[in-house]
Write a structure and sequence with these properties.
Structural class: alpha/beta
Number of strands: 24
Number of helices: 19
Shape: globular
Largest sheet: 7 strands, mixed
Distance between the termini: 62 Å
Radius of gyration: 22 Å
Length: about 500
């Protein structure tokens, strides 16, 4: 039996899963680590934390599985996108990684727009300059930390730093590189024009591969430390959303998924390059060679619910420990008792600014309509509904662009919630489905590893063989009517508050 490993370097934890070639989970391990916020709107993590988590979880799944190391043919790596990892000439980390949800780079985005017109950025990188993406972060370090910048010799994304740790190879792949604002997305290669305009040396960037190509093999010392084999191949892998698409079978036209993790995403596959000229949604290369995807992103999706739980729901956490259940199961139970619309309470999920459709680093979270009658359960439901409204905004733009979706899948931690799936079905006006396989990004990159190692003929063929449907949640007609009214009001609130957000940021 052949085995494959998928590693998902997430924002809250790294999860490593060992699969057999039929897609069955043989062993799984995870390790959490912190996120640091030195200032309001900033977000950083230590790459060394990701490294330690990966090495620990690789060792655990190898030991737990009992698989012969020579039968573990390949490793795929997924990870949070856009993070900036800077290494010196010896391959040592220079500073903490500025990660995807960091919003400090507003001035650098303006600099980028002065260097090249917005339309040209969209034509080359398929997206306008964005605060959360990697290019603006590089410029921020150059401007604000010149000593660190002067030491830089390598720029990597989070998962590609892990690739370097495992293989000693400086490389990336097209899906994750699409989120750096340095890639020619239609051409699937580094943009010499962009790099020249920004004065960023191309040699600092890794070789670009397709997601299922082999990029290297495990270093002997890593193989020895983890109990694996130095013959194990490491493929390109994918950014977290592109990996989740493969892990849920969203690999052909007409298919899409919604994921609710720390951020939230509506992601549609496309065999053609489809770019929003207004720059409200993101077009990137996907993990299927020669194809692309279009996605809208809600910055504070699962983050909103986790924030509320951690700050105000210690009673749920303690009760869950007593019962031996997940605190989110208790939250879902109580939220189910509150009617759609949370009795005139609306939440705006802008804890970390927003990307779709507003591209506004200054907007912040709001509860609108609070009254003395509202309970904690009302606020919890309002949080879930506010995230759903934002995801519906993303879906509306895809429809406007002519991206036809016949099948919407749900994944991520929030996708496991029947309450959240029902909200999405009501707002999308179509069934929201799940698959039996629950490992999403980890399974996706394991499939990519299997393709790279020759175990599967293609990404599409592997998904057809390994991924099977599970639940389908259809719209509730009455709740759909209610949400249509609330969503319309939700959309107006951002416009009403836009200038006030700027005033708040200037205080």
């Amino acid at each position: 039996m052949n085995y494959l490993i998928g590693i998902d370097v997430g924002t809250s934890a790294t999860k490593t899963v060992l699969f057999d070639e039929t897609g069955r989970v043989v062993a799984s391990a995870s390790r959490e680590y912190p996120m640091y916020q030195p200032q309001n709107g900033w977000a950083e993590q230590k790459p060394e934390d990701w490294r330690d988590a990966v090495l620990e979880t690789l060792s655990k799944v190898r030991e737990e599985s009992g698989a012969d190391s020579k039968d573990i043919k390949g490793i795929g790596i997924s990870g949070q996108m856009h993070g900036l990892v800077m290494l010196d000439e010896k391959g040592q980390v220079i500073r903490p990684s500025i990660i995807w949800c960091d919003q400090r780079t507003g001035a650098e985005v303006e600099d980028m727009l002065s260097i090249m017109p917005r339309e040209r950025w969209i034509a080359i990188t398929a997206n306008p300059p964005l605060t959360g993406w990697t290019a603006a972060k590089i410029l921020w370090v150059r401007k604000n930390e010149p000593e660190n910048y002067s030491r830089c010799r390598h720029i990597l994304l989070p998962k590609d730093y892990i690739r370097y740790v495992l293989t000693g190879v400086f490389a990336t792949e097209v899906s994750d590189a699409s989120g750096m604002q340095l890639l020619d997305v239609p051409g699937r290669c580094w943009s010499k024009e962009v790099l020249e305009k920004l004065s960023i040396p191309e040699e600092w960037l890794g070789t670009v591969y397709e997601s299922c190509q082999v990029t290297g093999h495990l270093l002997p010392e890593i193989a020895e430390a983890t109990g694996l084999s130095s013959e194990t191949a490491v493929v390109g892998g994918a950014g977290d959303n592109a990996a989740a698409a493969v892990g849920t079978g969203v690999v052909k036209d007409g298919t899409a998924f919604t994921t609710i993790g720390t951020s939230g995403v509506v992601f549609a596959h496309s065999s053609q390059v489809t770019i929003d000229p207004k720059g409200r949604v993101h077009t990137c290369c996907c993990a299927v060679p020669g194809a692309w995807h279009v996605m809208g992103v809600t910055q504070g999706a699962g983050l909103s619910l986790k924030w509320f739980r951690d700050q105000f729901c210690q009673d749920y956490v303690e009760e869950a420990k007593k019962q031996g259940v997940d605190s989110y199961d208790l939250i879902n139970r109580d939220v189910a008792e509150i009617p759609a619309g949370s009795e005139r309470l609306i939440y705006l999920p802008y804890l970390m600014g927003e990307r779709t459709p507003h591209l506004d680093p200054d907007c912040r979270g709001v509860f609108f309509g609070l009254s003395a009658m509202h309970t904690k359960a009302h606020l919890l439901r309002a949080v879930m509904e506010g995230v759903s409204y934002s995801l519906a905004d993303c879906n509306d733009i895809l429809e406007e662009m002519g991206v036809k979706v016949d099948q919407m899948m749900a994944c991520g931690g929030g996708g496991r919630s029947p309450i959240w799936r029902q909200m999405l079905a009501d707002l999308y006006g179509c069934p929201v489905k799940t698959v039996v396989q629950s490992e999403g990004p980890a399974l996706g990159v394991a499939i990519l590893a299997g393709v790279g190692c020759g175990i599967y003929e293609s990404v599409e063929a592997a998904c057809e063989a390994l991924i099977s449907p599970d639940k389908a949640t259809g719209p509730n007609a009455e709740d759909a009517k209610t949400y249509k009214k609330y969503h319309a009001l939700y959309k107006k609130l951002y416009g009403d508050l836009k200038e006030r957000y700027k005033e708040l940021a200037a205080l």
